[in-house]
Design goal:
Keywords: NAD, Oxidoreductase. InterPro entries: FNR_nucleotide-bd, Oxidoreductase_NAD-binding. One of its GO terms (cellular component) is mitochondrion. This is Oxidoreductase FAD/NAD(P)-binding domain-containing protein. The structure is a single chain. 27% of the residues lie in helices and 13% in strands. With 110 residues, it is an alpha/beta fold. Strand 3, helix 4 and strand 4 form a beta-alpha-beta unit. The longest helix is centred in the last third of the chain and has 12 residues. The protein starts with a helix and ends with a strand.
Amino acid sequence: MDLVAAIADPTNITLSLFLTGATAEGAATDDRGIIEHGKLPNRTFGRRVTEADLVRAIDGYRTPVFGTKHDRQGTVCYVCGPPRMTDEIVGFLSKQEGMSEERVLCEKWW
C-alpha cells in the first residue's frame, strides 16, 4: 500500500479529534470554550473516544458496501496519546475484521 499516494488525495482523509482533560483540577486555563460549533473542524468532540467511534472511523463513516474485510483493506489509522490509551486502541483496531497491525500506526507521549 502506498501511504504517500493515499495522503496526496485529501478526499481519502478524515480527521476526528476527541479532546479530553481540558478542565483538570488546578489547570491554569479552561479550554472547554474552544470546543464549540464552528470554532474547530466539525469532527471535533469534547469527550472520550468509544469503541463505536473507532468502528465508524475505520468504516469511513458509511455502511460497508462489499463487507468490512474488503472495504477496510485501504484503511490506515494513526493513534496518538498516552501509552495506556494508545495500547488499548491499537489492540482494538488491529483485531477488527479487515484491519492489520501494519496499518494501525501509533505515537505515544508522556
